[in-house]
Amino acid sequence: MQYGMVIDVDRCVGCHACVIACKAEWEVPTQFDRNWVHRLGPSITSDGMAATYYPGLCNHCAEPPCVPVCPADPVSVTFKDAKTGKTVTMEVGATWKDPFNGTVQVDTERCIGCGACRDACPYNARFVNEALADDHSLGKVDKCTYCMPRVAEGLEPACVQTCLARARIFGDLDDPNSEVSQYVKKGAVGLTSQAVQIGPHGLYFASKKGDRELLMQAAPQEMPKVSMRRSMLTKMSIVAKNQVKEIGLLGLAGGLLVKSLQDDEK
Amino acid sequence: MASNLTRRNFLKAASLAAASVPLSKVAARAQSGVVKAPLVAPGSFKDTQTAVGGLCEMCFWRCQLVGKVRDGRLVKLEGNPKSVDNGVSLCARGNAGVAMLYDPDRLKYPLKNVGKRGAPKWQRISWEEALDTCASKLKTIVDRDGAKGLCFFGHGSHAKYLMDFLERTVGTPNVSEASFFQCRGVRDTAYLTTLEIAPDENVDMANAKVIFLTGMHIGENIHLSHVKNYLRGLERGAKLVVVDPRYSASAAKSHIWVPIRPGTDTAMLLAIMNYLIENEKYNVDFVDEYGEGFEEFAEGIKEWTLEKAAAECDVPAAQIKEVADLLAANMPHVAIHPGRHTTWYGTDFQRSRALACLTGLLGAIGCKGGLVIPKKPKGLAKVNWPHLEHEEDIVLRELAEKHYFAPPGAPTELLRDAAITGEPYPIKGCVICGQNIIQCMPNQEKTIKMLEQMEFVLCVDIMPTDSTMYADILLPDCSYLEKGDIVKTGQQWDLSEEPQQYIAPRMALVAPGFERKDSIWITNEIAKRMGYGDKIPAQSQEELADKALAGVNLSLAKIKAEGGIHVQPGEDPYNNIEDLTVYFYSEDMEDEDYPPVPTYTPVERPPEGFVRLVYGRTPLHTFNRTANNPWLVNEAPINPLWVNDKLAARLGLKEGDTIKLVNQDGVTSRTTTTVKVTPGIREDVVYMYHGYGTRNPEMTNAVDRGIDDTSLITRIAVDPESGAHGMRNNFVKIMKAS
User: What is the value of pTM for the model shown?
Assistant: First the structure.
C-alpha cells in the first residue's frame, strides 16, 4: 500500500481552507504550515494566459531524502500492517518511511531538531519548531503525516474533509481501483524535474496545458545539499547544553546561552 | 556572550517561545508541573466533545458549524455533517474562527475613551456604568433633537437587533448599512425595478449551460455553497464567460475572458442585447409573454452596435458577438450572475438593470440554469421591535428628493453630509455595530469629520477597528461562536437534487470569554434605560430564537437534539413564475426622471500618468474582523498591487518592489505594499485586495500591513437612482518606496 494525494487543480479555487484546517487539527504554530497554497500566474504559457494553484504538502516520497540524513540514534521499531496484521521490524532514526502504508513519519520524542531532514527536502515540506527545544533537542521537526491518526479513526485527512471543491483526493496508489489511481491514469503527475526525481506521492491533475506548465515550473529544480556537519554539531551542542545546565544555571537560561552561542556562530 | 542574556532578551525569548507552543502543551503544563507534555497535538477528534448548532459569521454566508471542544476550549471548527448547504466543508476563514475566538486583541471589557476620538485612551468601566452612559447620552439627544438626531451603521447578525430597536422603536431613519450602500443594494433595487425579484446571488450555476460573470471573481471571493454551485456547473460542462479587466480566479477557469475597459460593462451588455434583438436570437416567446415595453427598449438601445461597444470597451467586436451567440445558443439555461459587490462607478443601477434585462431577454428566469429563487422554509414567527409612530418629514432621501430607487435606509452620502453640515437637521449621536465605517466608506476624511462632530459615539464590536478608535464608549460583543442570535434558513444549493429545506438557528459553541455580552442583551439593557423596557421583543437571545422557531413547532432544544440543523422536505423551485413581468422599459423610472431604458454613461478615464485603482477580495479576509486573525494574516500578510507587466517595465518596477500610492487628489498611502507583476491585468488599471492597512495599533497583527485601498478612494461618486457609492473612480500613481 502506498498512500497518496491527488490535487485536482481544475477544481481548486485557492481558498486555503486546507492550510487552516490542518493548522487547527494539529495545532501547528501560527508562523509555520504543514501545507501551503501558492498562486501561480497569471502568466503567459505556451498555451496562452494561465493561472492556477499549487497546493503543496509532504509528498511521502518513494525515495525520501529526508530519511537517511537523520542523525538520531537508531532504534528498532516493529511496524504492523493495519490490514493484514503482518509485522516488520526495522532500525529507524527519528524519521522513516512506513513499510506498509508508504507514509513518511517523524518520532517527535527522539527528534533532536537539527534540521537535516528539513534541509534535505526539495519541497520545503518540513519545519523545525524551536519552541519545543528541550534537554535533548534544539526543537522538533514537524510536517504533514497524511493525518494517519485521523485515518486510523476512519476519518479523512483534515485538509480533504474541509475542501469545498473536492479538489483533494486521498487514497491508495497501489490499488488500481482507487480514485487516486484513476487520476493517475487520467494524467495526474508529481512535481518533478530533471534533478528531482524522488517519487513524490502528491500528484497534480490539470486538464489545461497552461496550468500543467505552471505547475511544472513550480517543481523544485535541484536537490538540496545537506551538510552532515550541522547535525553533528547539534548532537554535540545538546551535550554542551546539558553540561551548562549541570554547572548550575537555570534550565531555560542555559538553553538560551547555548542558543546565543549558536546564533553567534551563524 | 553571556552579557547577551539581559533580562529583556530573556523575557522576549521566553514569550516568543510561549507563542509557538501548541495549545495542548500549554494546557498540559497548566494542569501539572510534572507531567510530561505531549509534543504532538492529539488531533481534534481525541478527547473532544462535538458542540452543534454553530453558524459561521466570518462572512455573511453563514455556513453551519460544529465545534470540537476539549475541556471547555474550542480546538477546531468543522462543517456540520447535517448541513445540506456547506456540508462538512469550511473555507479558510471559517476554519480560522478558532484563532478569532482566542485572539488576545479582541475586545474584552466595556471601555470608556478618556483620550481623544481617533487617539483613544481606554479606561475599563463596569457594564452598569457603560450602559447608563450610553442610555443617558442617546436619550438626551433624542429628547432634544428627536430620533432623527441619531444615526446607525451596522452589519450582519451582530447588528440586526440593535438596528431594529433604533430604527423601528426609537425611530431614527438615519440607518445606513454598508451591505446596501457600499455593496449590493443597488443590484437589488435595479432587479426589483426590472423583474420584481430581489436576486441575491440566486443563479442556478450548477445546472447552467453558460455562466456569465461581470466582475464577479468567484474563488477570490468565497461564499461556500455558492462556490460549490459554480464548480458543479463547470464540472457538468457549463461554459464560463468572465468579463473583468483582470485575469481573476474565475477568468483562469473561463472559456472566454473579456478583458474589458473598466467602467464600460453597460455598453457591452447593451451591444449584446441589441445584437440578439436585431438577429432575433433572443427568447421571443418569453419576451412576448412576460415583457413590458420591449419595443421602446429595442428602439432605445439600437445605437449599440457591436462595433460601437467594441471601441468603448476596448475588446474585439468578434468577442462580444461570440459571447452573445454563446448565450443565445444555450438560452434559457444561462446563469447571468447579478454580482454581489456592485457599487463600482456611480452608474451601477443602470448596469444592474441591463443585467436584469439580459436575463429577461434570454428567458433565463425560473428555469434550470437561470435566475431561480430557492424555496426556503416558511412559517418562522416574526419577533421584532415594534414599529412606533414617527415624526414625518425626516427621511433624508425624501427631503433631498433624490435616489428614488434607494435600498432601505439612508444613502450614506446624504447622511454624512447632513451630519457634517447640520442640514436639513443635526445628527449628533452615532451608534456603530459590527461595521468598520472608516474602511468601507469612501473618503475617510468626511467620515472622520462626521464622527468628530458627534456628541456621542457608541461602538459595539468583537474586535478593535479603525472605527472603534472614534468611540466614546466601546462595548465587547460576543462573537458568533459565543452566542445565538439568528436563524438561518435555506434550500440545498444544487436545485436539481431532491428538494430539501433547512432551519439552522445559531447556538453558542462555547461560553463567552471575559466580560463579553451578546448584542441582544446589550440592546435590551440600553432600551430599558432609555424607557423602552415594555417594548422589548425577547428577554434573551434564546427566547428570541425560540419565539421564532415556535412558528414552525420547533425549539432550540429540539434542533440541538437533531444535530443543530432541522432538515425537512422542500419544494421544487423551478417553473414558478406566473406573476413575472420584465420591465424592459420602466415607467416608474420615467416618472422619476431617470432613463427608462438601460443607459450607458461613460466614466472618466485615468489622466496621463495615472491608472485606475480597483480592489477586490482575497479568500483569506472578509471584514475587519478577519484582518487581525493570526492564522489568516500568516497566509496573506499584505495586499500586493497587481501591475501589468508592460506598465511595470515602463515604470521600472520589478516583482516584489515596495511601493506607495498617491491618488489624483494628492492623497498618499500611509503604508506600503509590494508589486505583483503580471500580464493578467490591463495596463490602465491596478488591483489590490480590500481591507488591509488598518491604522489601529490595537490590532497588533494587522496594523500597517499593506495599503488601505479605501484611504485612496477620496473622490466620491453617487449612483443617482440608488444613492449607493461608486468606488472605482479613483486613479493612482505608483511610487517606489525606499
Answer: 0.93
